[in-house]
Structures are given as C-alpha cells and as structure tokens.
Amino acid sequence: MGAVLSDTGGWRGWREATERALYQPGGFYLRERPADHFRTSVHASPLFAGAVAELLGRVDRSLGSPATLTMVDLGAGRGELLTGVLARLAPEPLARLRACAVEVGPRPEGLDPRIEWLTEPPAGVHGLLFANEWLDNVPVDVVEVAADGEPRLVLVAPDGRERPGPRPARPDADWLDRWWPLSEPGRRAEIGRPRDEAWERAVGCLDRGLAVAVDYGHRRSTRPPFGSLTGFRAGREVPPVPDGSCDITAHVALDSCGGTLLSQREALHRLGVGGARPPLSLARSEPAAYLRALNSASEAAELTEPAGLGGFGWLLHPVGLPCPL
Ligand SMILES: C[S@@+](CC[C@H](N)C(=O)[O-])C[C@H]1O[C@@H](n2cnc3c(N)ncnc32)[C@H](O)[C@@H]1O
Fold this sequence. Notes:
Blueprint: E1 12-13, H1 14-23, H2 28-31, H3 41-44, H4 46-62, E2 69-74, H5 80-88, H6 91-94, E3 97-102, E4 115-118, E5 125-132, E6 141-145, E7 151-156, E8 162-164, H7 170-179, E9 188-191, H8 193-203, E10 206-215, E11 217-218, E12 230-233, E13 236-238, E14 247-249, E15 252-253, E16 260-263, H9 264-270, H10 280-285, H11 287-304, E17 313-319
Parallel strand pairs: 2-3, 2-5, 3-4, 5-10, 11-15
Antiparallel strand pairs: 1-7, 6-7, 6-9, 7-8, 10-17, 12-13, 12-14, 16-17
Helix pairs in contact: 4-5
The structure holds S-adenosylmethionine (SAM).
C-alpha cells in the first residue's frame, strides 16, 4: 500500500508525524479496523472480556453498588471488549451499567445500542476505566545520541527517511534523564512524557474507581537500547512510515506512568483465568465438555504466556478505593 495522506511535505519530529499519520482526517485509525492489522488480547479469546467483567464486578462491590456503574473502554477499537463484557457481566450489575467506548474511529454499524460512542471519557466516573493497547498508540518523539554524546530529536520525512534534529526541549530532556538516560552514540529512546500526561488525564475522569492500562512495555532496567518504534499492517510488522499506510507504535515505559504494575499473567490468574488442562477422565465421561475445556485452556495459555501476551504489563491506578485486584 502506498502513501495514504495527501499532505506529505516536510520533516517533523516522530510525535507530530505519528499524530498526523494515525489521527488526522484520512489517517490510519480513522480509516482502518485495528483487528484487520494486529491481534490484541481482546481478539485472542473471550476469556479476556470475561476477566474484565470479573474485575468490573469487583470494582462495583468496592464502590458499594452505585446507582450507575460506568465502564469506560479507552481506545475501544470497534467496541469488541465492551461487547464481550456486556455478554458476560451478571444481570446485576448489568442493569446499572453505563458502557462508554472512547474512540477516534467511527462507531461501527450494528454495535450494541447500549454502548455509547464518545471521543473523550466522561467526567465524574464511578467505575472502571480500561485501556487495552492504547498507550502504545499515544505518539512519542524519538531521540538518538549523536557523536558528541548528546541526544538529538530524530526528524522523519513522510517516506520514513530520518535525519538528526535539535536537542530535545527541557521537559523532554528532564524526562530522559529521569527515565531513560542515554550517553552512547547511536543509542535511541522514545520520550514517554506525552504518555505519562495522557494517562494522568485519563485517570482524572474517575471520581472513584479503578483505571487499568494494559500494554507491552519496559521498565528502566529493561529499556530497549535502540528503542522499539515500529509499524504494523495487515498482521505483519513493517518499517514505520508516517504516511497513513500503517499503524505506528512503540513499547510503553510503563514505570514512568505511575501506579502499580502487574504482569498480565499475574493479573489474569488473580481474576480466575488459568491455563490448567481439564482432567482426562472428563474426556471419557463428557467428551464435548472436555473439548470445550481444552479449547478454553489453550486460549488461557495464550493470554498468559510469559513471552507473549502474558508478559504485557497491567498498570493499576485505584482512585478512592483499595485495589480490587
Ligand atoms: C491498538 S488499538 C486497540 C484497540 C482495542 N483496545 C483492542 O485492544 O483491541 C488502539 C486504539 O486506540 C484508539 N485511540 C488512540 N488514541 C485515541 C484517543 N486519544 N482517543 C480515543 N481513541 C484513541 C485508536 O483509534 C485505536 O482504535
């Protein structure tokens, strides 16, 4: 696929270039269905929505069953997670649920009418804010250390060519010093400050409840030496080219966002999703039930595999209540 955006002029920092490529009119996420390009936990198995429904039930109990319990799915894709949660939540609290999808992309045709489609999270929420693979799509600038040992912003052309730019501005330089210090020429980093700020704003929509961001990420001790900026198109990893033709993403410095971090493996185990195989005796007594349980165990194994989805981080941020996980 060639360039999609018509305005292609100019060298820009990666943050601005990505913002335009993904979110300006005609950009990737306004046009494309995420599930056509990559597979998240939401698409991998309905067990994931089941676990989120379990978490929502726990948040509801911690809140003392408010008159309106709200779930906000931030970066909702095509509403798949909320659809799954609506199917799995117990009738009580389902009857009190306000389900809000927050998305820059259009409302899909035929979506359950109980799901509101918003461009910003509502204010004063009592409930759960859940953001699965959203933070990695919050655009960031990239720096590369020059021969003199100083980080320079990387500028990018619409066809993906790069060249060194100016030194990063003070707040970005401070973020790098604190969270991703660099000195060796050629080393690269993504400046996570816009993500920290985006997450703080998202958590701010909660009056009381729990905010959860789930993403692939790293901590200070495990930063990738050359960064992780990359592209995805039609299920394949491709070079990141900011012309609207592909997704552009980078792993998240989850530790700089604040909150408590758990692995997805640990979080799902705490919510009752395990990978244990059903007993062989079930195969003889109830073969159909055995096959269903086997299928479910293999989906659970995929969601919790430490080298795959299970290695994702769950960033937990309770507001006004103890963490129900
Ligand atoms: C990687 S997809 C994840 C979709 C879904 N959460 C899932 O797990 O399958 C990220 C989604 O976040 C949306 N998004 C990114 N920034 C956003 C913003 N500021 N407000 C609303 N949606 C946003 C994109 O349009 C895209 O659908």
